[in-house]
Amino acid sequence: MATRKRVTAQDVARLAGVSRTTVSFVLNNITDMRISEETRQKVLEAARQLNYHPDVVARRMVTGRTRVLGFVLRQSPEQAFADLFLPQVLNGLSQAAARQGYQVLFEPIAPGHPNTMYARLVNERHVDGIILSGPRFDDEDLLRLHREGAAVVLIGRLPDVEIPYVDVDNVGGARMATEYLIGLGHRRIGLVTNAPLFYTASAERLSGYRQALEAAGLSFEEGLVRYGDFTPQSGYQAMMSLLQVRPLPTAVFVASDTVALGALQAIRHAGLRIPDDISLIGFDDIPLAGFLDPPLTTIHLPAFNLGWEAAEMLLSRLHGEEIPSPAARLLATHLVERESCAHARR
């Protein structure tokens, strides 16, 4: 069987009646050339008829752009794919990118892995810019990349660092969750974090928990805090440890719904009932939260909007649009009441 001849830019030029250079300018969206709208439409129609798609490497040589955004997550692949919050963020990011003709390259990087991997994504021209989710206080390579002028946007934030970011009010959301439990009469409230404290979101949610306790005149007890690590397994282990404390907490705030899945199972395995014996509140409002047994009361986080806003901010930087410095978008959270919390027994 004869091999089908590959369609080239020259074929498009011949059909459209223009030069190959004009085809290159039109299909690579180079706007500073004086090409009439009529000519541009002829080229696009010829490319459509011939089912021609520009070679990615050739496009990169002409424009200096990959039209790819890097989405870097500071988690191991195992943690990333266990995190039920992530797909919603990625959906928002991908849709915003596609609207402007960009693709997304997803790269999870384990905490112990060299941070230089995402610097290479930019420096070796695999991507035009990076959206980094889950920034850490100890990430010197990220700061270096920013100082070198790379296009970087954070989902999350680093205090005193002027890297543009999109985030939610982690402190306010955690305070809201803890205040809700206090309003139900709970005075002995445990906490399972979403991640280790070198992740800024984890530290902020711990801060909101402490603020709510102190505002209510309740003392913060380190013995009522355990540390999750993004996964249901970490939530199970953290909750099993917390259930050894005496007297038992009457309620627990788990600062991630994904981690709360494991915490819920641990409570059951201990022979306790939710919310009769212990109330449980989460954070994120993953799609599964309303279908658990019992349905999980949680703090709603606009995950899709996080991804969308981060992509929009990065694309604005790439297109040379002016962004206020420091650029920050803080999205609101709200409480979603379901059936996993009850009034404390007197």
UniProtKB/TrEMBL annotation:
<keyword id="KW-0804">Transcription</keyword>
<dbReference type="InterPro" id="IPR010982">
    <property type="entry name" value="Lambda_DNA-bd_dom_sf"/>
</dbReference>
<dbReference type="Pfam" id="PF00356">
    <property type="entry name" value="LacI"/>
</dbReference>
<keyword id="KW-0238">DNA-binding</keyword>
<dbReference type="InterPro" id="IPR046335">
    <property type="entry name" value="LacI/GalR-like_sensor"/>
</dbReference>
<dbReference type="InterPro" id="IPR028082">
    <property type="entry name" value="Peripla_BP_I"/>
</dbReference>
<dbReference type="InterPro" id="IPR000843">
    <property type="entry name" value="HTH_LacI"/>
</dbReference>
<protein>
    <recommendedName>
        <fullName>HTH lacI-type domain-containing protein</fullName>
    </recommendedName>
</protein>
<dbReference type="GO" id="GO:0000976">
    <property type="term" value="F:transcription cis-regulatory region binding"/>
</dbReference>
<keyword id="KW-0805">Transcription regulation</keyword>
<dbReference type="GO" id="GO:0003700">
    <property type="term" value="F:DNA-binding transcription factor activity"/>
</dbReference>
<dbReference type="Pfam" id="PF13377">
    <property type="entry name" value="Peripla_BP_3"/>
</dbReference>
<feature type="domain" description="HTH lacI-type">
    <location>
        <begin position="7"/>
        <end position="63"/>
    </location>
</feature>
